[in-house]
Write a structure and sequence with these properties.
Largest interface: A-B, 94 and 97 residues
Number of helices of chain B: 12
Mean pLDDT of chain B: 89
Radius of gyration of chain A: 22 Å
Strand order of the largest sheet of chain B: 1-2
Low-confidence stretches of chain B: 1-16
Order of helices and strands of chain A: HHEEHHHHHHHHHH
Helix content of chain A: over 70%
Radius of gyration of chain B: 25 Å
Number of strands of chain B: 2
Strand content of chain A: under 5%
Low-confidence stretches of chain A: none
Order of helices and strands of chain B: HHEEHHHHHHHHHH
Strand content of chain B: under 5%
Shape of chain A: globular
Distance between the termini of chain B: 55 Å
Oligomer: heterodimer
Number of strands of chain A: 2
Largest sheet of chain B: 2 strands, antiparallel
Mean pLDDT of chain A: 90
Distance between the termini of chain A: 39 Å
Helix content of chain B: over 70%
Largest sheet of chain A: 2 strands, antiparallel
Number of helices of chain A: 12
């Protein structure tokens, strides 16, 4: 009896895992299956047309790349600073826990609130109107905590003996930070950056009020009143309309392009990030 | 470098402490990052102030929102947010934690990493794509499923909850797995040595030791569900003032509703700017959301960052 109950429990946990796998497969199969028919060369090389349902998504892709590039440029130096401060310069363990908890909380700030904050500060306060720069900075703020956490985990996974050897050679903290910690965790920097790009590419809410428009924008030439198109915003607007079958095809195509962009960015660095995550916890 | 600066640097060198530019940069950039988030909170507090001055905190706790008559009762939205999030956690908790047990305790290490890649992939699907799946697939399915309750359409609180359950599933699985994997091997071995079976070891030794971490996985999932905007926005119907007659009844879940986030993400936010009280009411709602989500995730991560004693 005991044995059967135990077996039942293990089987039940396996069924739960199977359910998660099923959800993932269904979601991926639907998006890929319905999106593929829309994809051809013209989908990538032509701007959207009609009511947004026709043509390609050229400028939506361009806008998204501009936004995530800006976000990365704005957030990466800050993330490196936070990670070094938390690992090298703040060595007290109690502070470490507070700092990490604060980063997790910052990471959980609802993205719509970041969007509204940008609406107040950039759109009205600075008078930028809708601008790619405002959107990029907001996305940067959005991905900053996750980048910092990825980097911190990588640094904490460094073998303790590296640091011991460096300090043993009489290097100062700055020298250790520069030549050992940063040098050895370049991989973490890289994977943190890719993770940030992937998250920024898919976000809609931060650019809702401060950066994105649905049509009538190409490559921005200035700063003020220079909005961009963006893939997630394109999908968000079209999903609220009622559609024709042709429109639906376009919509799934755009979703597939976004998914491939996000997945390829995050998958490149995933194995290294998972390993660092495991080691920083259980090293 | 000026002569004076050179002298300074040389002096510092002799004492073995050079001015550390990297340290300055690290703290400087950290300060900018912290100031940005502090600034966000300050902006919300500042912009919400006119509303608090006019109506006080209690102004939010009515059941009627009608900005033309300056009534900003947000209880129906708070109810909506809690309803969809609790549905999501109720669905994601058993499945997610069950899957976490399987990943951490049953799968061999290699397969576990592969499974985690799948979980991360699920976490990486953008919320607008989840929203699209909700609009084009889930909505009709839910409308069929809820037919006994006679819903007007598939845009219901239940649809939002179901979609959110899928969206927080990766958080629950991944953090649950972390919590279980952090339990020292020695505790498992001791339990097995005492004659407990494999499942009994998990239930009586591993899960109790991991309980705080498992709880924090659920807290962080709940925080994520409360803050999610775009996907919920697309499937919830965005119907104001849906205050249920009985709070704990299930029927209201089959109706359209509004959450705090779907309100903030909607066009009313554009319209309200310029009217200090109306705008202030929306920002006050945002401040409330921010406080709740930040508290949940701080508590959740504080627990899960606890150092597990090694056995």
């Amino acid at each position: 009896m005991r044995r059967w109950l135990g077996l039942g429990f293990l089987v039940a946990s396996g069924l739960c895992a199977l359910a998660v796998l099923a959800v993932l497969s269904i979601a991926l199969a639907e998006i890929i299956g319905r999106g593929m028919p829309a994809l051809d060369l013209a989908f990538f090389t032509r701007p959207s047309a009609g009511a947004g349902y026709e043509g390609g998504v050229l400028f939506e892709i361009a806008g998204t790349l501009i936004l995530i590039g800006t976000a990365l440029a704005a957030s990466l130096p800050l993330a490196i600073g936070l990670a070094l401060a938390a690992t090298i310069y703040l060595p007290r363990p109690s502070l470490r826990r507070t700092a990490l908890s604060a980063l997790y909380s910052a990471n959980a700030v609802p993205s719509v609130l970041i969007g509204i904050g940008g609406f107040v500060v950039f759109v009205h306060g600075f008078g930028w109107g809708k601008s790619w720069l405002g959107g990029g900075l907001l996305l940067g703020l959005m991905i900053l905590p996750a980048e910092a956490v990825a980097l911190i985990e990588r640094i904490e996974a460094l073998p303790r003996r590296y640091l011991d050897a460096a300090y043993g050679l009489g290097l100062s903290r700055g020298q250790v930070a520069r030549s050992v910690v940063l040098r050895q965790s370049l991989g973490g920097l890289f994977s943190g950056a890719l993770l940030g790009l992937a998250r920024a590419a898919g976000e809609t809410a931060p650019i809702l009020f401060a950066a994105a428009v649905f049509s009538g924008a190409g490559i921005p030439r200035g700063l003020k009143e220079s909005p961009v198109l963006a893939l997630p915003y394109h999908i968000f607007v079209l999903a609220q309309d009622s559609f024709s079958p042709a429109g639906e095809r376009h919509l799934w195509g755009a979703a597939l392009v976004l998914l491939v962009l996000v997945a390829s960015l995050s998958l490149i660095a995933l194995p290294a990030r998972l390993r660092a995550h495991e080691e920083s916890r259980h090293g | 470098m000026s002569f004076a600066a050179e002298r300074l640097a040389a002096g510092a060198e002799r004492r073995g402490r050079r001015p550390d530019a990297l340290r300055l940069a690290a703290f400087g950039f950290s300060a900018i990052a912290i100031a940005a988030f502090a600034g966000l909170i300050a902006v919300f507090a500042f912009e919400a102030w006119p509303f608090f001055r006019a109506q006080g905190l209690t102004g939010l706790f009515g059941v009627r929102w009608s900005f033309r008559s300056e009534r900003f009762g947000a209880l129906p939205m708070i109810y909506g947010s809690l309803a969809v999030s609790l549905v999501a956690v109720a669905l994601a908790a058993p499945i997610g934690l069950g899957a976490a047990v399987f990943l951490s305790e049953v799968l061999p290490r290699r397969a576990r990493i592969a499974a985690k890649v799948g979980v991360e992939l699920l976490a990486g699907i953008p919320s607008v794509v989840y929203g699209l799946l909700g609009v084009l697939l889930l909505r009709d399915a839910v409308a069929r499923l809820l037919r006994p309750f006679d819903p007007i359409s598939g845009d219901t609180l239940a649809t939002g909850g179901l979609l959110l359950a899928v969206m927080i599933l990766p958080t629950v699985v991944s953090l649950g797995d972390d919590a279980l994997a952090a339990v020292p091997r020695g505790q498992r071995q001791a339990a097995r040595a005492l004659g407990l079976g494999r499942a009994e070891t998990i239930l009586r030794a591993v899960v109790p030791a991991a309980l705080p971490g498992l709880g924090s996985a659920l807290l962080l999932g709940l925080g994520r569900a409360l803050g999610e905007t775009i996907a919920v926005f697309l499937v919830i119907g965005r119907q104001d003032n849906q205050w249920p007659e009985r709070l704990l009844a299930l029927e209201p879940l089959a109706r359209a509703g509004q959450t705090v986030t779907s309100k903030l993400g909607g066009s009313e936010t554009f319209l309200a700017y310029g009217d200090p009280t109306h705008w202030g009411a929306l920002l006050a709602l945002g401040l409330l959301l921010l406080a709740v989500v930040a508290a949940l995730s701080f508590a959740g991560s504080w627990v899960s960052l606890r150092k597990v004693p090694r056995a």
